[in-house]
Design goal:
Chain lengths: 506, 506
Amino acid sequence: MRLTPQEQMNELRERVAEIVDLGQAAAVLGWDQETMMPPKGAEYRATQQATLHGVIHERLTNARIGELLSSLEEPDVQSTLSEVDRAIVRVIRRDYDRATKLPESLVKDLAMATTRGVESWRRARRESRWEIFAPDLKRIVELKRREASCIGYKEHPYDALLDEFEPGATASQIGPLLNQLRNETVALLARIDQSPRRPDRTVLEQPYAIAGQKAFGELILRQMGFDFEAGREDTSAHPFTTSFGPTDVRITTRYDENDLATALYATIHEGGHALYDQGIPPGFARNGLGESASLGIHESQSRLWENFIGRSLPFWQFALPRLIEIFPSQVDNASPETMFGAVNRVARSLIRVEADEVTYNLHIILRFELELALIANEIDVDDLPRLWNEKMRDLLGIDVPNDAVGVLQDTHWGSGLFGYFPTYSLGNLYAAQLWATIRRDVPDLDHRLSQGDFQVVLSWLRQKIHRFGRMYTPSELIQQATGEPLNPQYLIRYLNDKYRAIYPPA
Amino acid sequence: MRLTPQEQMNELRERVAEIVDLGQAAAVLGWDQETMMPPKGAEYRATQQATLHGVIHERLTNARIGELLSSLEEPDVQSTLSEVDRAIVRVIRRDYDRATKLPESLVKDLAMATTRGVESWRRARRESRWEIFAPDLKRIVELKRREASCIGYKEHPYDALLDEFEPGATASQIGPLLNQLRNETVALLARIDQSPRRPDRTVLEQPYAIAGQKAFGELILRQMGFDFEAGREDTSAHPFTTSFGPTDVRITTRYDENDLATALYATIHEGGHALYDQGIPPGFARNGLGESASLGIHESQSRLWENFIGRSLPFWQFALPRLIEIFPSQVDNASPETMFGAVNRVARSLIRVEADEVTYNLHIILRFELELALIANEIDVDDLPRLWNEKMRDLLGIDVPNDAVGVLQDTHWGSGLFGYFPTYSLGNLYAAQLWATIRRDVPDLDHRLSQGDFQVVLSWLRQKIHRFGRMYTPSELIQQATGEPLNPQYLIRYLNDKYRAIYPPA
């Protein structure tokens, strides 16, 4: 007795809902681990997570899901499904294929190689000795190449890896965009160098008591529209956002008692991620569409709030009086313009995670170019330190004193994350294009922001991005929200305009 | 190709380890829910828990476990197994049977009836109207009777329910013990009434800042031997202890700014539970033996620390100087004897959870007698309010003004928990017998405690109780640890001695 399409769809939805529930349970364990867990809890937590992820994998790769998908993909069945149900079939097909295409032996080899990779990377960075990490990285790259060929791709093996984080993105599509961004950024940096103005950062570098920073961050989060009844903020070594459904979204930050910017911008950044997660419609929460369209789209939300709003002059026009109430002796004499300059100082630096808005993308482009060549077998792992240092000189004009602050600075490659870095810059590109559209749609935007009316931005994002979850691919979503495909000119123009004001020509 | 016994045992162990992991994951979600979760998170958390518990049930009731157990129970196989492996087979057989013996329809009916029962009980208590709760309770009692007949029993249907919380215990075994305790306690209470002395509690009823209470509680926990690297203490509406493995044990307490005893004794009580959980050997953590022998044995640990140590004179000889450092103005003039008297005031009262050490067991005995008759069909749900009030007059000599503070005060029955209450008094009985044995083994015990040497007690408990997890039944464990079966005279003697000192005869 064959099930009707609607019965099949219901069964698929039920199976997906359970997988979502278990994924959220694993997320609770992950959050606890980073924020609350006592140190000795790590060992059993790893076992609990391994078992839970094993159950999730087992359920996702259940052959019954494959049967349901095949049947629901038949053209005459598709035409009877709602748009949402078709989207569910599409995203679960993608997840199912990615989960089933890799042979179990490859999954195990990758798990082992990356566990060792993270370990040896940590040692290698501590001692600044590349050779400690290189053999493990060689093995990882080899396995990632095999992963790419198992997953399949049309043009470039890198596309198979990129697709995990940015569905539908390809090297041939984003390569030229990043290249334009690269050339324009190098030119902008040269102009900044020649400016006689150097913003002063000392207003940020004073003692700021953590309790006050916390109160200020919470005030900003509330103003952004973060719902504290449906989320919370805690402290962790590395700030992050995690969601257990749209009504329980947790963010973390970290505090530097002598630098106001550290916690504030981590809070706004994670707050941007969190608003996306809180904006997922309840109806999507357990159907497989209740996630971001991609890492790049997720990052566009955090960057938009952090940089386009949080590092703007109107933001400080609103925020400074509130900050003065909490830290009178530190900022009583500051103006919104002082704060605006201080939080936007540009500096050629070695470390990606400390980079400013202008140079940040150069750090990403460097990594993207290396990854692409590595996966294509055009360069060898042994070439990486030399190529890294050459590119740092080309792109940022600085010499790398040792590998610890060079090729060994990031954990991503040791963890097997290839194709992940570009999503950071895609986030910036998406954010700029969304921001330009918001500006067009809301003519008095700066005035509103200076009054603390962030709701106008949140409503726009809810309407154009959040409510769709991952119903559309990133490129569909951007096309719909902005009326055109991804176009790097928005970010280039934004950066040029903003930094010409901060670093005027001589 | 049949597996060897050792291979079967390994497979059973692997399956059990996964079930344990998933149970711990569910415990993390439960802890988070009570301590950290934002209010709106409740709905999805309920779904996550339901799914996770569904997976656990599915794995525990997998027919393969039944096959492995049957095969491992064969006499010629048993003789090849280690003592630990035999214990694993025994406890997993028990869990498997309890999980598989109930038809799915009964499990669902019970889940629905108790969900409704908790709801209507809450309303009934708020409005003090028994008739709101009675119909749901009737249904629950009927289903619990059916549960008892599905589980099976030798003598009394109540035994099948009791066994869930206190493996091996029966009404015919604990009934006479509780009856002795009842008669002796009633007599003791009469003597206390006639004493001219009335300990003064006012030293506890002063403003105590929460930060100071927290510091004091932490000091006491450390002194008890609680490992903060393998656990933490937080705040929740109702204090509890939960464990995600012996290296991650979480306790909670609650604070009353105007009563020192509330948080302190909750902390010591939960600390006693936590020391048990932290004392489970790592080798037991995932093999199914890494739990308490029973609720009663678990309660013996919390009561031993809370009452036998925490409410003793030697405890206050140690603790008072530390308390004076934190709260000088509140306790500068107090003596250890003042504190000892204050925390041991006896009062005939309506509410079980507020009862003192002497009257507490009478509250339990009342419930035990009613439950027993109810499950045996000797009384009807409609009789409960009247019988409750009669027994309160008989046992405690007080009149119940309304059902909200009488028969409706506890959540247990609405949740379907029959057979649970006696474990509280069993905990007191076990604790007294263990304490008498510790006293015999450590002649200078009081002196050591007055010096803050609680390690001597912890070591003893680790050696005699904690390290066995649930390898033995409660009665085996007590026999081994104390050299005789459970004997209520230890608690009776302890209470008589202690309270004769506090309430001397005229």
